[in-house]
Amino acid sequence: MNKILLTLLVFLSAFNAFASTPFDLKKITVENGLSHSDVRAICQDDHGYIWLATLKGLNFFDGREIKVFDKSKGLKSNRLVEMKKDQSGLLWLLTEESGISTFNPMTYNITHHQLLKDQKGKQLYDIQNLSIKFMTMSHKGDCLYLLSTNSKVYKMPLTKDGQPKYLEEIPFNIKVQPDNFVRSIYCDDQENLWVGKRSGLFFKKNGKEGFKMIKNSNNILKGVRSIIKLKDDKYLVGTFNGLFKVALYNKSIKKIQRAKGINKINVLLKTAENDILVGNNDGLWYLKGYQPPQFIEMDESKKKVNVFALFEDQFNSIWVGCNSVGLRYTDLKESNFKHVDFVKNDTFDFRYSRCMNEVDNYYIIGTQNGIHFVGKDFSNELHSDPLHHNNAFCAVSTIAVSNSNYILAGSSGYGLYISKQPFSGFDNLKFEQLKIPKTIEKPKRFHIRKVITDKSDNAWIATNDGGLYCYNLITKKIQFIEQAKSISLSMVNSMLYEESEDLLWLGTRNKGLIKLTLEGDSIVSARQFMHSIGNEKSLSSNFVFSIVRDKKGQIWAGTIGGALNCLVNEKEGIFKRYNHSNGLFEDDIEGLLVDNQNGDLWIAGSSITRFDSKKKTFTRYSKSDGVHAENGFKVNTDFKDVNGRMFFGGIDGLTYIDIGRWREIDQKINVNIKEIQINHQELVNQNELNGRVLLDSQVQVKKSYLLHPDEKDISIEFIGVSPSEVPKMEYVYKMEGYDTKWLKASEGNSFAYYSNLSSGNYTFKVKGRLHNGPWSDVQETHFSIEKPWWQRWYSIVMFICIFIIVITLINISYIHQHKLKTQLVFAQNQREKDEELIEQKLEFFTNVGHDLRTPLTLMQGPLDEVVQNKSIAPEIREKISLSYNQTNKLLRLVNELMDFRKFDKTLELNCTKFELAPFVENIYNSFRLKAMDKKISFQLEQSKEPLNVYFDAEKIESVIYNLLSNAFKFTEENGNITIKVDADTTQKRVHLKVIDDGLGIDENALDKIFDRFYQTKNANSINIKGTGLGLSIAKSVIEAHEGKIEVESKKGEGTTFIIELPLKEMPNEKVIPQNYFVQQETTLKVSGATFEKQTVLLVEDNQDILLYLSDLLKDTCNVKTATNGQEALSILKEDRAISLVVSDVMMPEMNGTELCHEIKTNEHLWHIPVFLLTAKTSLVHQLEGLETGADDYITKPFKPSILKQKVINVLKNKEHVMEMYQGVMQLQKPLSKYSKEMDDNFLEETIAIVEKHLPDANLNVQLLVDEMGMSQSALYKKMKDVTGKSLVEFIKDVRMRKAGELLLSSNLKIFEIAYEIGFNDVKYFRKCFKEHYGMSASEYIKKMSQLSEKQDMAS
Predict the structure, then answer these.
(1) Please, which residues bridge with residue 1001 across strands?
(2) What is the mean pLDDT of residues 304-321?
(3) Residue 938 sits in a domain of what CATH number?
(4) I need a surface site. Which of 300, 600, 984, 1144 has the fewest CB within 10 A?
């Protein structure tokens, strides 16, 4: 009581930021979910959650989220002005105009109270019409007192479950003026009633009748808004005109503040620590112990904020309800971390600390503008010295105080400043700059990193880039120490001096940790500890910034980038590393101290971490624990004073720890289940889930759930019950029956999710704690997942019965199957024999077809040349054309024989969009001559409009040819055959019909007509033979096009074949004209060209074709021949001048594919182009040939003119390349023109490389390969392709080219040029020059001079 009174009596004292309790106010606004910015009352329910009465409904807050209950949830009015909690936990709500209601926080049920009888049951009160303005709850929570606007007071006793018993009026027997409005009502712990009015304070003692006015209160107390009891008969009254103390027994009223002070008070609160909070129209005032009152800013803008409600919860957190800005809350528990904010105190002439030390009863702060002395209570600055250097402020980086009380200040750029005499006060305190003799002064600007003094009054000075200095404060002797026992002492970051052993430890920027043994100002011995790559027992980083020795005598080194190191074995230099792997979440150690009480390590980085020396565990502290380090801590700012207080600094001020007053967290919280979801559906009280109510109370109350078999996914949200401290909480949980150990929830997360749980019983357990505090009791919730019906006993019995029945049926079936097995085996064997016979037939047809293609090729080639010869008489040419067409027809039949086996396996289509009309017309024209010969009327009926169809022209042509061939076979003279084409645009189909009036087909044969090898009796009867494959293949082709083919026929009347193809919407591509596949009657002329210096090698085992090809190419180039691949390979190895190889594929000894492979894998031959000729037309065989490296793949029969032109193109290109190359090498054409024309810089690059090494006689192929970064084989092929030369020949040509340049552009003599380009033998050089240019060097100079004169005259 005395403490409170004394606080009130010194209320006039000035506010001091450093002596006050820090208020880290957190806020909840409309933006965070609050329903209204005006908070009028605050309560805490029995579970510990916070409820807020606002002008827009009731708000629930659990520390994480807000729930709003308003008129839509059952409230009669949203404008709540007062709220009280009774003994049963019900919340009593007073609205502006709608009376009184109760809210059950457990069930969310709302009850409106309107009509109540008096105690005798004679009078009925309508509460809504009583004009209730204020209300208060008795101390026990068993009675509610109401105050109306007309000064009437009502008493409403409550039952244990919160139901009103009756309503009774308490007469207000004192006559007051009508304008003396009521302002408050209060019931103290003695059940005494207090009523505050606009003027005066009124009191009714418990058990007495009638109210009494406190003497003179009508004159002194104006607008009594809040009353609280202090102790005994002493009360504190907040009014419009100030704060007053009222003594009940002696009827005295004393104003606490006589000068300008706190007025317009709305609410008062006495905390559990007997501190006083005052809320008024300006904001919030805090009165604590003997400290001066502290004004708390409620808003960042520092605007005035009306405070209407104050509440302290069971966890000692303060909640502040404001007008217009929502809710504020804070934790008043004293923090273990104290903060000194230099910015907020105008008495300090600096913003932050760069280093720190102490002398006598003062702290010395090194700053950006000199050194500053402050008292140890940090109340104000006592003295400062800017340490001016040429009118510039010195930034102080380190401070030391010697045993003789000299003060040393190291600066960034201006060296060391030392007090002229030992410190004895501020009067004679002067500093002078230490002058370094120029003989040992290393840096131009003296940046001092650290200074420390030893027992001999030596100052050890570590500089940024100048090494280590030793200065004796008594003798004034100074020396520079660059090395200690061959160990460099440059770039020292930090130092630790141990007086008992006279040891000096150095932390360096790149030399690790150094131990120096001192003797006076001499270094007796030195040892270095450094990081070793791959050695986990070495120092983790050579960048050491902090060094301490703990109580056990172990050295600890804090590094930048390597975290923390402990020197566990100094003799062997063994370190133990501490980093993320063992709980330290700091890579950069900015500060390191050892406390005096426990010997624990305190580590500063982005925050502060404590290392428990006994448990070997790390505890990280953050802002929620009181650490102020939004921008982290800075190096060299850690300091421990003589009393053991530890300081860590940064631009956010100083954070210090008084380890002697350290308070361990002992608050034990409760953890509740906040929400449960089953299969991702939240359980809501009284709501149905899958047809039944699973939650019939609040989720934190219900402890067991029975779930259906398919309800296997469970999500549980839990929360600690201390709403203001939820961010500080951590949780562990496990699901017994599923988890084997406790699982830790990640930071900021309080959810547990389990999916696809098996049927069975589970118990979910969760516990939590405040950061580093004791664990809460375990909260348990049970879940039982029923078994599905098939796992229950009756299902199992049913399954056993079914199993027995099934086994019986299987036995019966097995006996029956065994009887059929023999029959099936016999049928299988018979089928295999049939398939074997068919396979032999197919193999025979394939072999015959392959043998036929070679003679057909010989026939087609000459016929093709004759047909194209215009000089032949037309009648002869027409007959030869007929032979030519029949040869093509025979080839189609052979192709059909060779391809049908492929159709039996797979059918590959090469579809393109075609104009159907000209395509069909071309086929029609091919058969017109035959129709005239057989005297058959042959007609084509089709629309003239273009009809584009997507199909494989070659295969569809084969099908139509087959159908027309059959029609002509079975139609007699004077018969009729018609091709009819029409389109059904609605169905997107095209129909092609081949109609004849021939023999027709038996009705019984129509369903077999498309079977393989089937032939009708009609065919046999008229002696017409076939393979029986045509229609089978036709059906395969049409079905592959997603179409269909049908036949309609009557014996003796004729047959109609109908082809139906889809009209597909295919990609927009060019329509291919018909002449792409059908040779027009035009003469192809091959441009004449002779390549006398080039040779083509022809490889063919068929002598006829070989002679034909030789004759075809003999006028074009030189021709060599071989009959197989082995012979050809021998020729190629002997004659390297071969320009092209044209080879058949099917040959003895070595086939064409193997020959191509041998050529393309031989580094001397693989540049030679290879053409393969073959009767294998399938894409698979073509791909096989091309994969071996073939440059072209030509199928038989081939067009001679096409083949000849392809050969000419290859030879012409090669000759052009050689001419270009020769011109470059003989200086007749510029190299840049060659590169531009060839679109390749290869020649320029290789010439440049060779020319760079020309004087080197050892210039060889390997050197060129290495410079180009290519394999020798790849470079050889590229060189052959570009120049036609080998690598050795190319190097020689470049030498000659350079010789020509030097002859024309320099005055060197021939023997000098020879040596210049790498020739040691001048005679050999002359010979090579003549071979290259075709003339001697002197002739070359003369010729080029004449040519130059002619060009000059022409220009």
Answers:
(1) none
(2) 93
(3) 3.30.565.10
(4) 300
pLDDT at residue number 1017: 58
Q: Tell the burial category of 1058 from Cβ atoms under 10 Å away from its Cβ (0-12, 13-18, 19+).
A: middle
Give the closest residue to 619 by CA, choosing from 650, 654, 651, 657. 657
CA distances from 1002 to 647, 977, 994, 1024 (A): 113, 19, 18, 16
For 990-996, what is the mean pLDDT?
91
**Chosen domain end from 308, 334, 360:** 334
Burial class (CB in 10 A: 0-12, 13-18, 19+), 935: exposed
**Count: domains in the chain:** 7
User: Which whole number is the average pLDDT over 306-332?
Assistant: 92
Is residue 773 located within the same domain as residue 681? Answer: yes
What SS3 class is residue 1095? strand
Closest CA to 433 of 420, 448, 422: 420
Count of Cβ atoms closer than 10 Å to residue 643 Cβ:
11
* CATH code assigned at 1280: 1.10.10.60
Q: Which of 348, 409, 407 is closest to 654 using CA atoms?
A: 348
Q: Is residue 963 part of a domain?
A: yes
Region of poorest pLDDT, from 383-387, 1014-1018, 1144-1148? 1014-1018
Query: pTM score, two decimals?
Result: 0.56
Contact (CB, 8 A) for 198 and 192: no
Same domain, 876 and 780: no
In terms of domains, do 1044 and 1165 share one?
no
Report the C-alpha gap between 329 and 321 in whole angstroms. Answer: 9
- Domain, as residue range, for 1164: 1091-1212
Report the distance separating Cα 309 and Cα 329, nearest Å.
Answer: 11
Do 654 and 723 reside in the same domain of the chain?
no
**Torsion-angle region of 1199 (φ positive above 0: left; ψ -120 to 50: alpha; else: beta):** beta
Q: Cβ(1189)–Cβ(1159) under 8 Å?
A: yes
Determine the residue type at 40.
R
> Does residue 1180 sit in the same domain as residue 1137?
yes
**CA–centroid distance for 158 within its chain:** 61
Mean of the pLDDT values across residues 1064-1076? 48
Residues 716 and 653 in one domain: no
Q: Are residues 950 and 1060 in the same domain?
A: yes
Q: How far apart are CA 177 and CA 199, in angstroms?
A: 10
Q: In this structure, what CATH number is given to the domain that contains residue 1161? A: 3.40.50.2300
In a domain, 1305, yes or no: yes
Give 1071's pLDDT tier (boundaries 50, 70, 90): very low
Which H helix or E strand runs over 603? strand 601-604
Q: Which amino acid is at 1265?
A: V
**Which strands make up the sheet holding 714-720, listed edge to edge?**
681-682, 671-678, 714-720, 751-754
First to last CA, the chain: 120
Give the Cα-Cα-Cα angle 1054, 1060, 1065 (nearest 5 degrees). 160
Task: From 408, 385, 411, 386, select the one nearest 397 (Cα to Cα).
Answer: 411
- Residue 820 has a CB neighbour count (10 Å cut-off) of 10
CATH number for the domain harbouring residue 602: 2.130.10.10
